[in-house]
Design goal:
The complex is a heterodimer.
Chain A (H helix, E strand, L loop, with lengths): L2 E3 L2 E7 L5 H11 L3 E9 L2 E8 L12 H40 L17 H11 L1
Antiparallel strand pairs in A: 1-2, 2-4, 3-4
Chain B lengths: L1 E6 L6 H10 L4 E8 L2 E8 L7 H18 L1
Antiparallel strand pairs in B: 1-3, 2-3
Classes of the chains: A alpha+beta, B alpha+beta.
């Protein structure tokens, strides 16, 4: 599944299962926990190399790379699943939100208050307008 | 220490590599060149005590590339 060599752990990521964007999202989230380098020697597979960051006062004990790799794989799966659900249900969600705003009439009315109103007070004004309806 | 790396265009962008090279100029000297679609970087550390500078540079390019490609 993965290989460990010279203090680095390399794991293959199959592009037919995980998209490039999901891999990027996952890697982005893990850059604060370890060093990451991604290569693509052949079409269809990315290779992700993880390297532990040195100990700091904040994190005196470096995390075991195997544990980080396990969490990386779980996060990759999580992002991939989210993306697939978004692809399947995104339009329905947009329709529900549009319908909700449409039914409330919120989009038909002019925004309450004035442009010069302080930003902090605007949510209260908005809530008052909704409650009055 | 000098490190030469090929950054795949599927993940890393040339713009991100150039930006990171500019921002890391006080830590290392980075030569950024196009290699077909990919990007070749040659990193020369300015101080031997900064062993992690290559790793930090790669993490930074990855983060910049992700922001560019996912937005």
């Amino acid at each position: 599944m993965y290989t460990i060599r010279d203090g680095t752990l390399t794991l293959p990521v199959d592009e037919s299962i995980y998209s490039r964007d999901c891999l990027l999202r996952t890697a982005y989230w893990f850059t604060d926990r370890c060093y990451i380098f991604i290569t693509r020697e052949a079409a269809g597979t990315f290779h992700v190399t993880l390297k532990a960051k040195p100990a700091t006062l904040e994190h005196p004990a470096p995390e075991p790379l195997e544990a980080v790799a396990g969490e990386f794989c779980n996060a990759l799966l999580d992002f991939e699943l989210r993306e697939r659900i978004e692809t399947r249900t995104g339009r329905v969600r947009e329709l529900i939100v549009a319908k909700a705003f449409s039914a409330s009439g919120l989009l038909d009315d002019a925004p309450p208050g004035e442009v010069r109103d302080p930003v902090a007070k605007q949510p209260l004004v908005l809530l008052g307008a909704v409650a009055a309806e | 220490m000098t490190a030469e790396l090929l950054l795949t265009a599927d993940v890393y962008t040339l713009a991100a590599a150039k930006q990171a090279a500019a921002e890391f100029r006080h830590l290392c000297r980075v030569d950024v060149q196009s290699a077909g679609d990919d990007t070749r970087v040659t990193i020369t550390e300015l101080s031997a005590s900064r062993a992690a500078v290559v790793d930090e540079f790669l993490n930074y390019v990855l983060a910049l590339s992700a922001e560019e490609l996912l937005n």
